[in-house]
Amino acid sequence: MQYQISHKPSFSLLKLRLGPGQSIKSEAGAMVYMSSGMGIETKMGSGFLSALSRKFLGGESFFFNTYTAPASGGEIGLAPELPGDIVEIDLSGKNIFVEAGAYLASDEGIQVVSKFGGLRSLFGGEGLFLLELSGSGKAFLSAYGSIFPISVNGAYTVDTGHIVAFDNSLQFTVGKAGGSWKSTFFSGEGLVANFSGTGTIWIQSRVPSGFISWLTRLLPV
């Protein structure tokens, strides 16, 4: 499989060239275009209960679409709903946790399941469930704004709304941004995730909630 991510970082498009019989799994509704002869199969993924939790608790679609190239090979273009960036992550030998809505596509062998994140995830604004991606191959994630990795060796603090994904080798707790709750609520920073350990965090430079708040102020009363 060959791929190219064009129009980064504002309006990214994932272009894939599949060899004969190769497949790519994507979030339902992500297909922009494809060459003739591509096979399409719609599945719930890792089972009915996992699909339910992914849909209602993880913010993802109930189904995955798997596209398979014919004997001559094929091309397909994928894009997320919101404008923003797309990144490729090689999962060989590691698992990652992904925020709701960030999964775009992956090799067919990558497992995507919902994992309980606890009350810390709920209070952090990420919902009770995260997606865990495991297996061997490539995964493609999307987010509003640009996406960039941060290597952590010790401790690092990130605004909860800017988290796209992180290695499962990292631990995190949710806490206040300032020294007091007053500074936390009135500084505009809100809650933060305090990571510890060794691994990588992928962060988005913008959040949809910020744009929505700005747009709401312009609407007539």
Automatic annotation (TrEMBL):
<dbReference type="InterPro" id="IPR036983">
    <property type="entry name" value="AIM24_sf"/>
</dbReference>
<dbReference type="Pfam" id="PF01987">
    <property type="entry name" value="AIM24"/>
</dbReference>
<protein>
    <submittedName>
        <fullName>TIGR00266 family protein</fullName>
    </submittedName>
</protein>
<dbReference type="InterPro" id="IPR002838">
    <property type="entry name" value="AIM24"/>
</dbReference>
<dbReference type="InterPro" id="IPR016031">
    <property type="entry name" value="Trp_RNA-bd_attenuator-like_dom"/>
</dbReference>
